[in-house]
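Records of this kind hold a single protein each, on a pair of labelled lines. Below, a sample record shows both lines together.
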Amino acid sequence: MDSAARELTAYYTAAAEAYEKRWADALRPATSQLLDRLPLGSARHVLDLGAGVGTALPMLRERAPDALVIAADRSEGMLRRADPAFPRVVADATQLPFPDRRFDVVVLAFVLFHVPQPATALDEARRVLRTGGLVGITTWGRDPASPARQIWADEVTRLGVPLSSSTAPHTLVDTPPKLLAILRDAGFRTPTTEILPWSHRPDMEEFLANATELGAAARQIAQLESTTRARLLDRARTRLADLPADAFTARAEVIAATAVAS
């Protein structure tokens, strides 16, 4: 595991409670739509790869009642918050501790863009899938900034804090053509993609909590002195208070993909 992966793993372990409280439910509808596209009713072995706090596990149990559903994630802190009724395995997506041809379905919901080598993760997913098994993926596509997010970015940069630009894995899988190509290169057959509209409408206080507790910018802001952080929040809150409710709504594209293992 390289240093960037170790840093991200440590972050998600530390932020697991905030992630579960503030973000997991926002991703649930898109994950549900992905699972509806997979042959879970006939599955006997399912891997939720990058399971995080286990948001998808109840939905997988409902759709795959006869399957052994295993949750795997690189972050032990995230997995601790997943339902212990499911087997939970701390594992790197690029080095899975499972035998070849083990699973009928592998799910990577909002995880591939976190992997420094997404192609390697897909190679591993194909390795552990039986021939004819399916992989299901969601990743972020186009993500225009809301007015509230633009104001927040302005105030952060005003303090001289550069917004994180560590988006290399994301840019490898942020359009349908890129995702189709990387799936084909990994040896999957008949890949398909679909754009799922997504939105999340926090109020101002929830928006600020998300901005200061989750994501790359939050990790940078955490390094500021307490008085500087307080000044940032005061300035941002003053400007955000004048916005209409809809200005806090995040709207993005979710790319859902499926492909067959050869």
